Amino acid sequence: MKKFIVIGITDNPSPWFTPEVMEVIRTGKVFSGGKRHHEIVAPLLPEDARWIDITVPLDAVFEQYKGQGAYGLPPEHQGSAGRGNVQSSILNVQSIIVFASGDPLFFGFANTIKRKIPDAEITVYPAFNSLQILAHRLVMPYHDMRIVSLTGRPWQEFDRALIERAEKLGILTDREHTPAAIAGRMMDYGYTYYNMFVGEHLGNPLLERVTSLSLAEASARNFSTPNCIILHADDVPAQSFGIADQDFALLDGREKMITKMPIRLLALQALGLPRRHVLWDIGFCTGSVSIEARLLFPHLQIEAFEIRPECEAIIKENARRHGAPGIGVHIGDFLTQPDTATCAQPDAVFIGGHGGHLKDIMKKVVQHIAPGGCIVMNSVKAPKVTTDSHLLWDEACRELGLTQEPPTRINLNDHHPIEILKCRR
Cα dist. 87→67, 68, 92, 307 in Å? Predict the structure, then answer.
């Protein structure tokens, strides 16, 4: 069984460790960590220490760990445990000692070891993580702080935290998701009521700096790395339930080209979105369904498709207007669009427009949708409509072996009746 000892450190160039940890370092043989970690701990390592840099791709790093053989022994000594003077070597090199930033179990390298080598024996000696140190510097209680890591990760969880109106957010950054980029994104989508606190080189007495500033100030400023952020808002506005139709930018000002709010909410209910993961919105037009879904169910990954290129600017304007970041937008004919091959597999699909190609669209959807996934569409019962979409829906469901649920029928004011159709794969 592989054995790892993972030691947390800060950016302090003169680290202090307990006697127990110092003994681990003194008797160690194989060490690992980032280049910055090596610079900090190099004076403490034994003369004959071997160092393995942690760099991407991580698979190559773990191949080097594997190359240490049983319990970290060099390959030439494998299987020789208990033979003469080799026994003392076994005791010294049986563990790979890894240095990691802060708490190695807090979005840290110990989690990576657990994922890569599930049966590894791991001992952890943690330090304060960077967000804890920043909170300490600010004398800010952090038991109620929501944590999001943007280190090598997409915006999804950060966007979700904003939409869910987290009052206090701790953010781990990287060279792409910088304080300026984060502030700019927040301002684009209207989340301007936060104050930002940035901590740079936390734990390093020579370089450490903590700055309090507005989002506008942060968006125009560069910060040294490593850094982390705390966002705090004293007064977070409440999230509304249902967006008024008149609050959306429309396609050519045409009010009929939007799914009305009551119908929109019923359609989202039919999709069963609290337990879904990926929603495809086909024929999004103004984006009202995608945006409403994003705000009500921010855990979802949403991919929106539309054939009309002018609708791209409309959905992006509406997303900014209503604070709905993170919607994937795909412009082009859904039936020939290659993007669908790279999008996450949907388990919920809303068909907002089909341009007379409903059966072909449903056939393609069935090729992608997860087992147990559902498809929902609104059908207008208008006397002047030449093609009965409900009839096409029924035919498609029969031909594709989809299980239909009873439709929901609703009348809004003097408008034609609308049926909310639902089927499952």
Answer: 19, 16, 9, 71
